[in-house]
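Homework help board

Subject: predicted structure for assignment chain

Our instructor gave us this sequence and asked us to write out the predicted structure in C-alpha cell form, then describe one feature. I got the C-alpha cells but I'm not sure how to describe them. Can anyone check?
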Amino acid sequence: MPRSVNSVASRRRRKKVMKQAKGYFGTRKNVWTVSKNAVDKAMLYSYRDRKTKKRNFRSLWIMRINAAARLNGMSYSKFMGKLKAANIDLNRKVLADLAMNHPDAFKAIVEKVK
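My C-alpha cell output:
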C-alpha cells in the first residue's frame, strides 16, 4: 500500500503560519522554516506582554493618583487607606481618570476622605 500523506492539512497549516508572518522583514515573511520560528516567538512575546501590559497600566494609574493626591496635600498610601476606610469603592483606573481629566471631582473625593 502506498504511503499516505495528508498534503491538504499540511498546506493549510503552513498557510496559516505564513499568513501570520505577513509584514515581517526579509525571509521571515516567505520562508517556511524561518517564519515558523518567527511566528512562534511572536506568539510567546504577545502572551507574555498581555500580562506585562496590565502591570504597566496599574503602575501608571498609581503614579497619576499619587501626583494628584500630593497636589491636594496627601500621599498615595494615606489616600488609598482613607478611601478604603470610608468605604468608597473606586478602582485605580477610575481614580486615575478623575485625577487626569476631572481634577475638581478628584479634589472632592480627597476632601470627603480627609
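Reply (TA_rk): Your C-alpha cells look well-formed. For the description, you could write something like this. Residues 9-113 form a domain with the c-terminal domain of poly(a) binding protein fold (CATH 1.10.1900.20). That's the kind of observation they're looking for.
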